[in-house]
């Protein structure tokens, strides 16, 4: 692990440090203030100051605390969703890559059908069936991520499956599952992690959009999308209400994208 960080591009190290710092700030704020923002109407719409670094909102809640807690709530939706999509999608793609004939075609066609439903449409359907909430957003984003990871795993896996060492392992008696998880997966992990970082960036945008229209994370938990929604009618008198949640959303998306770019550069520098 230490050798990996020493040889990793600066962009990758910087983005990982940025996310770790953000996680520490989120946990620190939660442990110090609690996880539900407190209202104080006597401090409503205060401009940024030493007492309230990001200012306060229309209900007197500290925007510094609320912004970091919203980032934490969004992360608790995004990262499990992408992890679920990775866990389900990658095995599908690996099996499709190692299996020839109708099995692989059926798996990829099923992934394409699932891919036809965007995360927003899936979230709307889940809201109609189960109601609004962060867990439904997690499931909707995961459903969108499954075919993406399946396609990436299948396309890269098929390239590796043509190599001689896979044929030798097959002749030695190894089954399809052993070939897929012991030989294909380790050789395509970097592309998969790169795709995972891009999916996290997309998922933060999707979660903010779903919360903005009211079907994402529900009150009293804060959400970046709902903070932006609450700020839109007060932009003329309190522009900081939209500025800081927007900066936080940019921070999350840019960090995820920089991790992906750093992994691409790392793969290029270490390609044999």
TrEMBL record:
Main location: membrane
Isomerase in keyword set: no
Presence of keyword Magnesium: no
Gene Ontology biological process terms, A to Z: transmembrane transport
TM stretches of this protein: 12-36, 68-98, 110-129, 135-154, 200-217, 237-256
Domain ABC transmembrane type-1: 71-260
Keywords for the protein's UniProt record, in alphabetical order: Cell membrane, Membrane, Transmembrane, Transmembrane helix, Transport
Subcellular location: Cell membrane
Membrane topology: Multi-pass membrane protein
UniProt xrefs under SUPFAM superfamilies: MetI-like
Cellular component annotations (GO), alphabetically ordered: plasma membrane
Family indicated by similarity: Belongs to the binding-protein-dependent transport system permease family.
Name of the protein in its database record: Binding-protein-dependent transport systems inner membrane component
Source organism per UniProt: Zymomonas mobilis subsp. mobilis (strain ATCC 31821 / ZM4 / CP4)
């Amino acid at each position: 692990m230490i050798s990996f960080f020493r040889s990793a591009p600066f962009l990758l190290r910087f983005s990982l440090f940025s996310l770790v710092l953000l996680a520490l700030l989120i946990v620190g704020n939660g442990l110090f203030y609690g996880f539900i923002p407190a209202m104080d109407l006597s401090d409503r719409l205060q401009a940024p100051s030493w007492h309230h670094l990001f200012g306060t909102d229309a209900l007197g809640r500290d925007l510094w605390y609320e912004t970091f807690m919203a980032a934490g709530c969004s992360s608790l939706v995004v990262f499990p969703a992408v992890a679920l999509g990775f866990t389900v999608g990658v095995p599908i793609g690996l099996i499709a890559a190692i299996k020839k004939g109708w099995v692989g075609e059926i798996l990829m066609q099923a992934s394409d059908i699932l891919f036809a439903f965007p995360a927003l449409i899936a979230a709307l359907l889940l809201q109609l069936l189960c109601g609004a909430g962060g867990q439904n957003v997690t499931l909707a984003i995961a459903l969108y991520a499954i075919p993406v990871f399946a396609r990436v795993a299948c396309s890269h896996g098929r390239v590796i499956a043509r190599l001689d060492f896979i044929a030798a392992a097959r002749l030695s008696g190894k089954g399809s599952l052993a070939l897929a998880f012991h030989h294909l997966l380790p050789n395509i992990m970097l592309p998969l992690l790169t795709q995972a970082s891009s999916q996290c960036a997309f998922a933060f945008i999707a979660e903010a959009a779903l919360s903005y229209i009211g079907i994402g994370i529900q009150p009293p938990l804060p959400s970046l999308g709902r903070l932006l929604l609450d700020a839109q009618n007060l932009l003329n008198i309190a522009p900081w209400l939209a500025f800081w949640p927007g900066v936080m959303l940019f921070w999350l998306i840019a960090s995820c994208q920089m991790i992906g770019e750093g992994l691409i550069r790392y793969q290029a520098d270490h390609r044999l």
